[in-house]
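Target chain:
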Amino acid sequence: MSDRPLLLVSNDDGVDAPGIIALRQALATFADVYTVAPQTEQSAKSHSITLHHPLRFREVEPRIWAVDGTPADCVYVAFFLKDLLPRRPDLVVSGINHGPNLGNDVHYSGTVAAAREGALRGVPSIALSNCSTDMEGAAQYAKRFCKQLLRVTPPKGQAVLLNVNFPPGPPKGIRATRLGFRLYSDEVEVRDDPRGRHYLWIGGPGGARSEPVEGADTEALDAGCISVTPISIEATQPEHFGVAAYVAGPAED
């Protein structure tokens, strides 16, 4: 058995996307890399898993499998399909996504969901997204970050989950950040298909603007820096226990 770390790679852009190809090539220089990724693009699928129809999968080449499901499906399959991996991965790496996943994007992102699925299984995980077309350059930084993360002793009881974003141009630095907040032109448009039937188109024109949040990932990218943001998989909001207790208390009418 190899004494090199075993890295599970996935994404939401699809198994043949330039970002995942550059990523696995960079990581293969120091680790045994296994790829289980969607057959086709699965952007904005968040953490959905497929329960109501069978999943097809195929071996693209040794250590690379394509699954016709979501990013979370792919990581789930990698963990639980017998003999797919020779052992439990040391790290789950998702990306490199084409485009950012900043601030509240993490709730919709399939890239982040693939990494989150790994963290839910107790494995340190990292999601990588790139505002630039330079995937090879981002992959070299990803290699560095993964090596660093493998050296970390995680806090007891919860796997580390990091969300990394690369700026549009050559990075001017690297910052540890918090999640910011992005505002989109949200709307629902009703259109007609060629047969005259109505359909809905969700989401306004492309692009987003960021709310000013000190120390945020959005602020780092605006400054031309790489952002590295820790994300919690603990969903309980302790500041709202009082609200929960009031709602659960005696009715007042």
Summary: Helices lie at 18-27, 71-80, 110-120, 135-150, 217-222, 241-248. Residues 6-181+210-248 form a domain with the Stationary-phase Survival Protein Sure Homolog; Chain: A, fold (CATH 3.40.1210.10). The radius of gyration is 20 Å.
